[in-house]
Amino acid sequence: MFPYLRYVVQSGFGLLLAAIGITLLAGYAGLLADMPRTWPADVVGVALLFFAAIYTPLRSYLQPADIVFLLPAESRTLTGTLIPALRRSALFGAIRTLVVFAIFAPLYAKAPVTADAAPAQPAAWGALAVALALLAAWNTYAAWQERRAVASTARLALRFARWTAALLSAAALLTKPLAIAAGFALLAAAVVSLSARLAPRHKLPWDRLIAEEAGARQRWLAFLGWFVDVPTEAPAAASRAWIAWIGDWVPRSRRFAWHFLYAKTFLRGEAFGAFWRWSALMAIVSAFARSNAVDMITYVAAIAIGGLQLTELGRIRFAEHASVVPLSPDGRRTAVSAVIRAAGLAVSALLWLIAAWPHVKASPALWLSALAAALLWTGWLLPRRAAARDEEEE
After folding, report:
1. With a threshold of 0.90, does the pTM exceed it?
2. What pLDDT does 372 receive?
3. Are 97 and 147 in contact (CB under 8 A)?
4. Residue 67: which pLDDT band, with cuts at 50, 70 and 90?
5. Who contacts 97 (Cβ-Cβ below 8 Å, separation ≥6)?
6. What's the sign of the alpha-carbon dihedral 331, 334, 336, 342?
7. pLDDT of 251 above 90
8. Residue in 327, 302, 304, 303 with CA at minimum distance from that of residue 317
9. Phi, psi angles (nearest 5°) of residue 149
């Protein structure tokens, strides 16, 4: 991964992140200088700390293998590799949550909604920070117990319980007296931890860790693939019946065979999974931001980064099916461009409606220009870029 990061920086993605960071910093300073009385500091704070606390990655770097031969190494792997990795994950989770809390604390103390609940003494601020750090560290422990569960239903139930406990604990710590909130958080953590002990568990969940490692590796390779050619792995196909039916609209003829293959592969592959999650997140941010500047920044970032995700479609190959379904390669570039264009234009229009609807009457020229730029980016520039790169690789 690290040898490829310099290509990410050279591509201009680092400049985009820097621009977004500077804009967010300016908005943060403006919010501190002129805090609206109705700004929902409690909701924002709970959401930020919740997501900071529940993120519990665990990189085991395990590769698929016959579990029978791994069992003799179970104790050595657990004590020598996984327990140190869990400690690092808990430490990073606590630091990440403390950083988020440190950024949010000035807003928390100044916002009228939460000013009464904010601590008055430095010692109380320190105790609140420690409680939030412990909440994040406990999430790492609870996520490990969740991974050890034998049944998938038990894992889902424990994850829901962990997320619920983290959400309610973060809300209590930010809005209630610290002693009462800390007691509630401790009780919620104890209930979830004791519930995990009731479910049948593996000593070391080899299959779960191998699957998580494969997923993390695929996501990193897919991200790096936006900027540089990297070795890729075959992603697993997802059903996605809620969206895959759109591919059935492609005419069933030899002329559109590549269109059908690329449409179905895109809708059921990893590229669409990342694309729709990113678009949905940006839509939620736009729906709740209610700020012209924030909505514009969100829209631009959504289209720019979402477009880069769409170009991943041009890297797909069907060589393993060539002997079964012989097709002329002439129509492949046209099909890639058509699928990227259709997905990009659809999302550009939908996100524009969500982001621009509250502001288009006040700033019609700005938002119409943004829509025109987005349609040009997704409807012309990205398809041409994907087709050109595909032609070079041939």
Report:
1. no
2. 94
3. no
4. low
5. 49, 52, 53, 132, 133, 135, 136
6. negative
7. no
8. 327
9. -60, 140
